[in-house]
Structures are given as C-alpha cells and as structure tokens.
Amino acid sequence: MLRTAISRAKPELPSQATVYPAANRSERHTQDMFGIHFTGHPDNRKWTRHLAWSRRSYPLRKDFPVQGEPQAITPPDNGYPFIKAHGAGVYEIPVGPVHAGIIEPGHFRFQAVGELILTREERLGYVHKGIEIKRHIDKKFSGSIAIRAVDAGSCNGCELEIHALNNPYYDIERFGIHFVASPRHADVLLVTGPVSRHMQTALLRTYEATPDPKWVIAIGDCAVCGGEFGVSYASCGAVSNVIPVDMTITGCPPTPLALMKGLLGLIKA
Ligand code: SF4
Fold first, then answer.
1. How confident is the model at residue 13 (pLDDT cuts 50, 70, 90)?
2. Which site in 1, 67, 126, 231 is 20 to 30 Å from 175, CA atoms measured?
3. Cβ(265) – ligand 1 distance below 6 Å
C-alpha cells in the first residue's frame, strides 16, 4: 500500500497515468469521488460524475451525508467531450443507458471500423455503487447481512417495495445485503403487516429461531403501529406487541429508497 499526504486546502497529486496507464481510470475516479486533482493527467475528463452532482459534492469524503443529497432530476449529459469519430468507414455505436448492477448504471460509446473496435468510452456512476457502505458491513457484519422477510399479515403492498430492493436499479446486493430463506441464517428480520392472530405464533417462533445477535425492523405503518387494522379479534396490531423491535420504517408502503435508508442507518448505527 502506498500512502501520501495531501493538502486539505488544495488537494492534488502528480498523475502516475503517463507512467502506469492502469492508473488512468482510478485517478479519474478518485478525482470524481474525493475531489483530488491529478496534475499532468493525460485525460482528466469526468468519468463517474454526471450533471446532477453539485459541483462541490464528493461522495467518498467523510463530510458527505450518509443519506445522500436531495435527489435532483438528472439533466441530460449534454456537452460531455466524448472522443469524436472521424475517417472513412469509422462509425460510432452508442450503448445504453444500461442498468447493470455490477458496473453501475451508465452508457457506453464504441467507435469501430468493421469488426475492429478503435475506442470505447464509459460514463458510469448514475447510481453510486456504495462500496463504502460495503466496508461498514465487512467490518461490523463479517462481510454480509442476511435478511429474512416475514409477512405477518400484510396486504402485500410492503412486499412489492421490498422486492424492488433486489431489482437492478436499487440492487441492494451490491452492499452485501441479501435475503435468505431461513431465520436460522438471518441477522435481520424484516417484518411487515399488522401481526394477524394466525401469524402470532409463527412470528414468535421465527424470532426465537434467529440466532443472536439479531435485529428486527418493522416495515410499514401496519407493522409500526397496527395501521388501519389496529388491534382486534383478528389482529395483534404492531409487531412490537409480539416481539422486540429495534427499528421502524414508516410509510404505506415505504418506498425502496426509504427501506434502503433505514437499513443503511442500522448498519451505520
Ligand atoms: S403499511 Fe400499507 S402497504 Fe404495508 S401492509 Fe400495511 S396497508 Fe399494506
């Protein structure tokens, strides 16, 4: 590992990209994420920054808010200085936007002559991969968090939003957070719905089957307070009336973003 000191007031370092071409992208990425300028870089165009980012926000700096910045509408990335295609038989193939979970959403441009690819450029980072959150999970949870979802009487509205966490847009697996089939493999129980009397024993047994240490998150207004169902002959109401609850996420149903913020809050707590 190479360590160096940089000035807070003027964070910059000499670029190594002319000597080690492999440093090219990592220096551009570091510039986008930390605001460190690499002097003498042969191509210091933005790589992951897009136009929805405010000029002075750098997501990997410690002062960047955990909950992110207020979401702006991403304006078209007009004016980005892509390398131009010239010459007889040269043509350009734009690809995207793509929602690829592993490499982050973005788009690509290829320039080719016949089968021969001349250049390939990427614009990534339209949703940040969140590797720094993964580091918290590695440290506190030994690499991953396993969630068992328990529908204790929900209308399934909350489940639809929980399912969305696994789609390519929210892609919660990128943080090392995944859903498991058995409470015996789980760190966290996500419980939805007012707890119906029929599910009371099942929920209690699921809780007891989950190894310590464990966390219970009540998802949605029904799970938090009983919602419109309250307590009745058929409903125990809030999850906390049956098992201990560590965190609540309100909403009817809560959005996937609210669910992610809640989970990330648990990780950072
Ligand atoms: S909080 Fe709303 S969406 Fe979720 S289970 Fe209750 S009624 Fe359905």
1. very high
2. 1
3. no
The neighbouring-strand residues paired with 111 are 92, 119
147 CA from centroid of ligand 1 (Å): 19
Regarding the beta carbon of 226 and ligand 1, being less than 6 Å apart is answered: no
Q: How many A from CA of 36 to the centre of ligand 1?
A: 46
> What pLDDT score was predicted for residue 108?
83
Per-domain residue ranges for the chain? 12-69+79-123, 131-268
One-letter amino acid of 98:
V
Domain 131-268, CATH class in plain words:
alpha beta
Phi (first) and psi of residue 119, to 5 degrees: -140, 160
Ligand 1 centre and the CA of 228: distance in Å?
Answer: 9
Atom 5, ligand 1: which residue's CA is nearest? 154
Q: What is the pLDDT of residue 200?
A: 95
How much is the pTM?
Answer: 0.61
- Chain centroid to CA 120: how far? 26
* Per-residue pLDDT tens over the stretch 97-123: 776 555 666 778 889 998 898 888 887
